[in-house]
Amino acid sequence: MSTESSLTSAHTRQIGGLAVNALGNAEILQYPKYRLNLYLVTICFVASSGGLLFGHDIGVTGGVTTSNDFLALFFPDVHHHVAVEQGAADSAYCKYNNQLLQLFTSSLFIAGLLAGLVATVPTRHLGRRATMLIAGAAFLLGAGLTAGAQNLPMLVCGRVSLGVGVGFANQAVPLYLSEIAPPLMRGFLNQLFQLATTVGILAAQLINYGTLRIPDWGWRLSLAGAAAPALLLFLGSLALPDTPNSLLERGHEEEAHRVLARVRGTQDVGLEFSDIKLAGQYARQVKHPWRNIFRPQYRPELVMAIMIPFFQQVTGINSVMFYAPVLFKTLGSDDAASLLNTVIVGVVMVLATLIAVLFADRWGRHALFLSGGITMVVAEVVVAALIAVEFRGATGDAAMPKAAAVGVLFFMCLFVSGFAWSWGPLGWLVPSEIQPLETRSAGQGIAVAVNFFFTFAMGQAFLSMLCGMQWGIFLLFAVFCVIMTVFVWVFLPETKGVPIEEMRLLWRQHPEWRRILGKELGAIAAVALPTKGASGINGASGVKANAVEEPQEANGHEGYGKVWKAAV
Ligand code: BGC
């Protein structure tokens, strides 16, 4: 028997209808204790500049679209309405309601959606590093075009180019980080990407606060701000190695071994190397992830890949991320105060994201989802009530009494923090960690596309909805938050500490899914899974390694499930 085939059979074991890799857990415990080394830290730093860029793109437009110089140049109608007529003719809620203005913000995400789907091809065939390089180049071009824009088409081309950057980066960077990270740091690193995103948002808001006081060209500086992380990503990607997984997938075995030894800081990487090799072999056997995910037995995975990113967006978060300065100005704050309020919101967001980074693996996803959901509902209802009662913008004076304005800011911060410790990071983590290998790339692709589509839709629609629904828009978001909280409570099993390869069993044990899908869930494909240390993307959590010591034999899924339940 060849070494490879003996490895494969040693790595699999039949339990109930499912073949699992029994030795996988044992082996991960035998990995040498890798230490963080400077090389790995540098790599993670460079790669997370992808998150900074994503954040900059989200956070920068709100401030820029309140700049009169910017509006006068590209959106003279809005400028006339806001600065000349002072929005006096009709409702203050409608001051910024302009489809083109919204397109400036949202065009990036529709480009990102398409680019993200296209990027699955270079990610696989050219490698993660090359895809990040393309992303860096597109970001640089986009930063140049938007900062130097002379007319609207040039501006929108710049946003589209940034969108291509976001699509490529969001496809390749999380994958890169997950693969380059030692297995026990994978879940933690996944959330660091979100942390970098929030830092990027805050940085953009701070830059806006500084530059938008500069007459004429201050907004150009804000938009040029994307160039710094873009350059870091571009030059960094030139210098970085590709991941061992991607190198092996493309047949560069020696180089893959060299890179693995270097990022682990030791030559003692044989076991992990053979794990990655097996994972690669298995991944190559999965020919139709897109067909798999539409089969009835994968319905829960499909539903989650669609509903979680959808719900994440209809919390209304991006109405605040994109348009906070516009909102504060609409409610009567002056330029400086509205930008300062926005910065306060940004700081709160970064701090609250830390809660998820530190505690998602300890408190569990459910606790964060539910507490975050309830917090958002309360905050949005109070914001709606305050605006309804204290703001006369629809009919007269558009300034709010000070105490009420402070109240709005406070509850806006509460809303953002509820999001930041729950749906923000978990909205990306959970859809990726519940996918089995058979559907993983398709599931991840769907989740990214749905997220970007609804980000686009919210960006495009919010100002018009604010104009039409006034304070009622926040009640609509609150209703969605209620629905999504109930949805998580009823349909999402707790995934904390459950190894990715055992996630499939969760649906079978879940009362609602068992009731809805019955027999279909029993039809879990009997496949040879690679060892746990080497699974493709977005590892579930750092708890993975100690979640299942010894799979219990022959009791079927229930018995097997008990093991991880006891362990988490
Ligand atoms: C969301 C973005 C949002 C950001 C705010 C991300 O998880 O996908 O749409 O703007 O969080 O931090």
TrEMBL record:
Keyword vocabulary terms for this entry: Membrane, Sugar transport, Symport, Transmembrane, Transmembrane helix, Transport
Localization (cell): Membrane
Membrane-spanning intervals of the chain: 36-54, 100-121, 133-152, 192-209, 221-240, 302-324, 336-360, 366-391, 403-424, 444-466, 473-492
Domain (Major facilitator superfamily (MFS) profile) ranges: 43-496
Family: Belongs to the major facilitator superfamily. Sugar transporter (TC 2.A.1.1) family.
NCBIfam families: SP
Name under which the protein is recorded: Major facilitator superfamily (MFS) profile domain-containing protein
